[in-house]
Every structure is written in structure tokens, then in C-alpha cells.
Amino acid sequence: MTRRLPCAALVVAVLAPAFAATPPAAQLRGETLGVSLPGGLLAETEVRKRLNSGLTTTFVVVATLDDERTSGARVDIRFEPWDEVYFITLRRIGARPQSHRAGSFAQLETWWRETSLPLFTAAAETKRVQVAVDVIPFSAEEQEETQRWLTRSLGEARQPAPPPVPADQGPNPRASASGSVLDVLIGTSIQRRPIFRRRWQVGVTR
Amino acid sequence: MTARRTIVLAVAAAAALVGFHLFIRHVSLIAFNFAGASEVRGLLEESSSDQKRLARLDPDRGNEYRKRFDRIQDVNRKLDIVALNREEIARRYEWTLMAVVAALLLAFIVAAIVSGSRRERRLAVVQRALEALGRGQSDIAIGDRSRDVVGRIAAMIEATSREVDRSRRRIQYLDHLAAWQEAARRHAHEIRTPLTAARLEVDGFVRAVVAREPSLAAVATEAQVSIHEELDRLREFTRQFTSFGRIAEPRRKLDDVRDALDEFITLFSGAWPGLTLTFERGDCRCTAALDRELFRQVLVNLCTNSSLAGATRVWFRIAEQRELLQVDVADDGPGVDPSIRPRLFQPYTTTRAVGEGMGLGLAICRKIMLDHDGDLELLDQGGLAPGAAFRITLPKAERT
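YS: structure for the whole thing
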């Protein structure tokens, strides 16, 4: 009995996140296989926290068929705290980006549930699809901006009483010029990494 | 450098790195924890909410509040990103510093190894030089001019070898001179006794001749005077021999060499007609253990030589050189004949005509100075003046 308890705890710890979000659905319409976004993912505490941070939260959806064909899409969601609206940008391979706007979190959830991503064509024979979703907490632009800000801040920390520079006036040239290798190294340590990743193996409905 | 020392250095460096890493791990997150503290973030959130409220209450300044709100949000978002990467930033910071410290340690170890092996090589050279010194070699030149311990030891070995060489030549010279002195003493003794007898016999013979034949008195007296003159020359010869054979041991006492020179100039300035004595007194600590009488004898001898050589001026100059005092005596005469320079201090070396000097003066002078633990040497041409230049050296002494 004492041996089984740790094993059970381990299984629960591994499987719990996968059960936390409703798996995505894969539906075949004609020759086109569409994958709906995994419902409940937005409600997860960490995701909800990220969504309301004001940073651009990116959901990278990658789907792989049994025949090794892979396709994907990306959903960028940014909350605008002043107007309290969510800006959504959907990017798919070979398609133009689509922008949406949700006035509340409930509207965002609705859009999320109802959106199906047509990821594969000529997939009539497909029975199963593997779907992976990575949640990245900020965009590449925000990453670069913060890298510059951190590098500049570290450089300014060593300067003797630099004049205050308003944030909208760009970097302090004096600090930038004196930015050491160490500052750059530390600044560039800010990287976009998924805060978590989900994987599902789902059957295709027709 | 031995492999053992290299290993010890490497282990010490590794221990230092580990210690540094443990230390830096504790301090690296402090700054980020401050920046990302929930209290700070909460205040920023509160502040941005205030801007929104203010914008509602004062719509005329809405844009201003909006800008402020955006700036606060911008900072907050960046702090959020920093907080998300907190571990990675701290790790990068740690490893960057670790790399710098490791590079410095590596450079130190490489420098220590290079310096150690160089020191080993230098020590081997010094050891060989010491062995050569032990074998009695006296012309040792190591050529290590470093100011560290090894360089100083090398300089000491070179100085010791020079001192050994100087002492050896001094002993050789004194042995040589002692043999000459012994011969001179014997010759003087052997000649002096029959000289007195010969003088008495001549006088007795002249008296007997004059008593028996008064008409021969003038001739006999003339012969007697002539024989006496020759005997007097022989007596002077033996006197010089005796003087050379019995050079007095110096009775030294602490004295200011400048005062001794001043006194000499004062007393002897008119001793040699046509010869002017000049003393550049200088400024030095000039105390030495000196027998002033013998020292004066040396100076007299040098000035006499200058005068006989036709010099009109003699310069004296005193200087300090480490533990020695140097008194240079130079004249404006014709200088020393190059053919006799190598054996100038050997007894019976002279360029004067037969009967005008025996060539013992400089040998006696050098003996006097050697007995003072100093020396007398002939300088190369081109010293103080165009003529002959001699250097008297004396060990300095502290006056108590």
C-alpha cells in the first residue's frame, strides 16, 4: 500500500494537466480537416493570468497526422487594460492574418470555442490527429523591447546619476554606449519560452 | 613547476570557483526579487487603476492620464517578462561572472606556471653559478637583472665573484710584493754592513797614506771624497731598500678623508714648484678608517711623480660609490707610458734614468692602500685631465 501511493501521486501529477483542459475536436468537412481550439484552456489559472497581464499571449497550435503531415496556426491575444478589450490575431499557414476583438473575457471564450482551424486539405482518410498547444507568455517584439530596456537599465545602474529619460524618448544614448558585454548577455537572457504545453491525440469526426 | 604544484593550483582554483558560485547564487536573485516584488507590482497596478479613475473624474486631462497609464503598464509588463525569465537571467548572470572569474583564474594559473618554470630555469642558472663560485671561478656573469629574489641572488653571486677575484689579485699582489720586500731587506742588510766597514777602511787608508807621504794628501783626499760619494749612493740605495722592505702597518682611526685632503693641500701646496693642487671637495659622507700619515705619503708620492713628469696641475676629487670612497688624483702631464701600464705597480718599474729612481714608490703606495682594505689603481686615459689619473679607494665607515 505504501508503495502504491507515490506511484498514484506521480500518475496524477503527470496526467492532471492534460485533463484540465477539454481536448480539441478534429472534424472532417469534405476533404478539409478542421481542429477546434481546446476548450477550457483559457480558463486555466496560469493562462487567465497571462491573458490579463497586458502582454501578448501566443497560442501555438501544431497538428500532426498519422502520415507525418504537420500543420499549425498561431493565436495572439493581447488585453488592452485601458479599454479592457482583447485583441485577437489568428495566423494560419498560407492564409492572411485575421483580427478579432472581444469586449470581455466571456466574448473571448465564445470566440475560442467557436473557432475551428482548417489545418489540412486532402485529409479524408485521416482517423487520428495529434494536437499540441504551446502557450508563450509574450511576443517577440515585447521580448526585444524588454531586452533593450533591461540592458539599458543595467547600464544606467552603473552610471553616476544619469539624467532621467522619459520612457517614450527611447534609450539613453549614453547608457547604450556604455552598455557592457555583461549587460547585453544578461539582457538577451530574456527569451520566449512556453509556460506550458499540452498534447492530445484526438479522433477525427466526420 | 612540478605536476604536484599544478594540481594544487588547479584544485585551489576549482575550490575558489565553487565557493564563488555558491556565493553568487545567493546574491544574484536579490535584485530581481526586489524589482519583481509583489508589493512593487501591486503598487504599479494600483497606480495604473488610479490613472483610469482620474481620467473618468477629469476627462479634460484624459490623454495625460492615459499616457501615464500606458507608461506604468509598460513598466509593469516589462517587469512581468523579467519575472518570467528571472531564473534564466540569474543563471546567465551567474555563469557570465563564473566565466569571467574562471578566465581570470586560468590566466593566473597559466601565469603562475609560466612564471614558475621561468623561475626554475633561472634558479638552475644561479645554482650552476654558485657551483662555479664554489670551484673558485671568479669571472662569473649571470646576466639576470631582475629585481626579484632570484635576480638579487644572481647579483650577489656576481658581486661575490668579483670580490673573490679582487681579493685573489690582492693576495697575489701582496705575496708577490712580500717576496720583493724580503729580497730588498736581505740586500739592504748584506750591503749595509760592508758599506760601513768600507767607509772606515777608506778613511784609515787615506790617513795612513797622508802620514807616510804628505805630498799625496790632496790626491788621497780627492779619492776619499769620490769613494764617499759612491758609498753614500750605495747607502741611499740600501735606505730605499730598507724603506721598501719595512713598509709600516697602518694605524687606522676614523677620519674625514676630505679633511685629510684639505690638510694635505694646505701643507703641500708649495712643495712642488710649478705644480698647482686643486681639490673638488664635493658633498659626501667621507669617513674612513685611515692612517693619515701613510695616506699623506701616498699623495706625496703621486704628486712627486706628476711633478717629475712635468705636470703643472693636479686635481683631487672625492666621491662615494656604494660602500667605497673614491679619491681620484689626476694631472695634466704626459700620462703613463702605455708600455708600462700593465706592470706599473710592480716594484722597480720606472721610466726614469738609472740612478734617478728605483721604481718602488707606486708599489709602496699600493701596498699602503691595500693595507687600508682599499686599493690604488691607474685609471684609463681620459679621466679628470688629459694626463695620468689614479684612483684611491677606501671602504666607507660610519662615524659614531
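YS: worth flagging: The beta strands of chain B are 253-256, 276-280, 287-290, 313-321, 324-331, 375-378, 389-395.
IM: good catch. Also Residues 150-245 of chain B form one domain.
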